[in-house]
Design goal:
This is F420H2 oxidase. The chain is of the alpha/beta class and 405 residues long. Helix content is 35%, strand content 22%. The chain has two domains: 4-244, Ribonuclease Z/Hydroxyacylglutathione hydrolase-like (Metallo-beta-lactamase, Chain A), CATH 3.60.15.10; 253-404, Rossmann fold (3-Layer(aba) Sandwich), CATH 3.40.50.360.
Length: 405
Amino acid sequence: MKAVEISNGVYWVGAIDWNLRDYHGYTLPGTTYNAYLIVGEKVALIDNTYPGHEKQMIERIKSVVDPKKIDYIIMNHVEKDHSGALPMLQKMLPNVPIYCTENAVKGFGKHYDTVGWNFKTVKSLESLSLGNGKTLVFLEAPMLHWPDSMFTYLAEEKVLFPNDAFGQHIAGCERFDDELGKEESLKHAKKFFANLIVPLAPRVIKKLDEVTNLKVEIKMIAPSHGVIWRSYVGDLLGSYVSWCKGESRNKVTIVYDTMHGSTDAMAKMLAEGIMAEGVEVKVHILKDGKHEGTHRSNVVTDVLDSKAILVGSPTLQNQMYPTVADFLCYLKGVEPGKLGKKKIGCAFGSHGGHGGTIKLINAELKAAGIEVINDGYEVYYKPDDAEQKQCYEMGKEIARRVKAM
């Protein structure tokens, strides 16, 4: 297991988790737990790995330097996918100081037995010299995405270590964005943003402005998950600004489940109407919510740059279908309404009794910050030709509203 030098005296010494398929409520093709070793006159380790992956990290460190020569441990975040090796490191390096925020000290105390640990709390713009042209500058980033979060910046090499910001969940042999490719790298970054960062969008914009005002040059972004950005930094930052501002395309996302095919027929006719107006549409059937392309995490990724979302469900025991309720619960947590521009939406569905699911769906859409544009459309049992035509016309009307936004 070898380290990868990413800049002068800076090494990736993380771990690859090839098997992880579900994390933070969304599907992923594995991930990496990125840790970084910086070698000056002194040696610093930034972040570490999830429990059970310590050996990978230690072996990579050994390919550069004896792990016992580490002088400082920098912790940008408490969560265990960043700090899981800390107990092992403390046994190996009992007196080595741990640099982190004051909130992080409290957080570590709730995760581990930290009695006797040598914490050094830092504030924004405080620095730590490693000698030999290596200076670390700390920038507190509370609620990006936990209260304890911070960024670390290697001034001379112009490398930003932003923890979870700008990350992607992907496992592979590629360590850099240009090795994976711009389109693929941004695709995974978009999914990460859509599922984890959307609720934090106002804070992200504020932090980006803060970094800009400091006139800090960033040549490389080394996040805690996924590939390291060295070739497409500008594209990444531009995408983050666009996503944070809620900039969307003329695009509609339709998401639904069906019991006997009635809601499915409605969804397809809605899509036909939308396409007839020249508007892009993505159609997702939830089913059991586990298969690639139908999981809620893939749906919210499409919602991110859509101007409208249509949610459909049959009525089951006077309630939404369970998969639809699950999706809407997840959507409320993502909070797309916190983005800079509004998204519109409404409900559709079928029933064999009293109905009423569309009212429940519309209420959940409102709770997620979506502007509900009508009362929705509900049919009794299977939609007949006239009702399917109504779905088609409803799709056209929604598309026209999207184009006017």
